[in-house]
Amino acid sequence: MKTLGSTSNLEQARVLIVDDVPENLTVLGEVLQGAGCIVQVANSGPAALRLATQAPTPELILLDVMMPGMDGYEVLRRLRAEPRSHDIPVMFLTALDDPRDEEHGLSLGAVDYLAKPIQPAVVLARVRSQIDARRLREWLRDQNAALEAEVARRMAENDAIQQVTIRALAHLAETRDPETGNHILRTQAYMQLLARALRHHPRFAATLNEHTIELLTRSAPLHDIGKVGIPDHILLKPGRLTADEWEPMKTHAALGAAAIEQAERDIDRPVEFLSLAKQIARSHHERWDGSGYPDGLAGESIPIAARLMAVADVFDALISPRVYKRAMSFDEARRMINDGRGSHFDPAVVDVFEDEFERFVDIANRHRDKPPAVAPRVH
Question: Checking DSSP bridges between strand 112-115 and strand 60-64, what pairing results, if any?
């Protein structure tokens, strides 16, 4: 990589001179070598094209316009068409004095013109200008590449930190509800599967783009974060809850949303995945017919993210063993989900669940739990 300071002189600048007249090659070569340049010469267009694409490539090409066989204009066209020589600056050498010739060359991509007979001082000034400009462009390109790499590294690091933080919070909830095991992995995968299958559905296409699906998948593990606020004697009870115990248990949805909302206020700026996580945490126990909690939302008023989680969460609860119930078979759980179509669940989500049922089974098997030791709540 050229340093920015190396643009102050022509030492070691690699220049290719192309001219069919040997005397011109000699004169120009002596001028440039005297200034410290590494000079290559070619006496024809084909020879110039070979040298221009061989490593190390020249930093500048001085190209005669009037040459037999392949003139300078054609050489320039071919240089620009070849990726290895596309960016090499080309200065035309010409005895032509018609401005239209100069305009034509510039339109093809030449950076400058040198008139014959040459004037050494002018040649060196023009060459130095182009070498300086090229080295500066290379320096800026390298700096930009380094900056882009650093930005990408930091973004990847921030992304990893965010995902680890989400998992840590989700596992924190699990420590209070230890039988959930791989529940967050399964429900996260179910959510992604449902969202991808629904992204072209007329009712969901405007919302479920790739970016939103990524955010949904990322935020899904926080759906039960509110369980950290439920008293142990309810959360860890080894049996079914009474009606009186269910009331505080149901507050975990609002507690989780409130915790996430507080996090949003603390950072004092909106974060997309937190907004979706809040919707999921608060509303994944709402029912399509309005009989759910905590807000009694119905139909389309239930956030899409929560509607997806409702199916994912209930399916996983049905197929998971508890001390007070056996695990349902996949087919039994399938019937239960279908029975809830239009009452508990959004019909369109259930339809996709049915279409993708075999993949649900694959996910459940891939993230199967070990035998439980303590019972969580059925929700």
Answer: unpaired
Alpha helices, DSSP H, located in the chain: 22-34, 45-52, 72-81, 99-108, 120-176, 183-198, 210-219, 232-235, 243-250, 252-267, 272-283, 304-319, 330-339, 347-355, 357-366
In degrees rounded to 5, what are phi and psi of residue 359? -75, -30
CA angle 34, 39, 45 (to 5 degrees): 140
185 Cβ partners below 8 Å, 6+ apart? 367
Reported as a single tens digit per residue, the pLDDT across 111-164 is: 988 888 889 999 999 999 999 998 898 899 889 988 888 888 887 777 666 666
Pairing of strands 60-64, 14-18: parallel
Across-strand partners of 370? none
Domains contained in the chain, CATH given: 4-147 (3.40.50.2300), 177-366 (1.10.3210.10)
Q: Are 187 and 219 in contact (CB under 8 A)?
A: no
Amino acid at 277: A
pLDDT digits (tens, 9 = 90+) for 237-295: 878 889 999 999 999 999 989 988 887 787 777 778 888 999 999 999 999 999 999 99
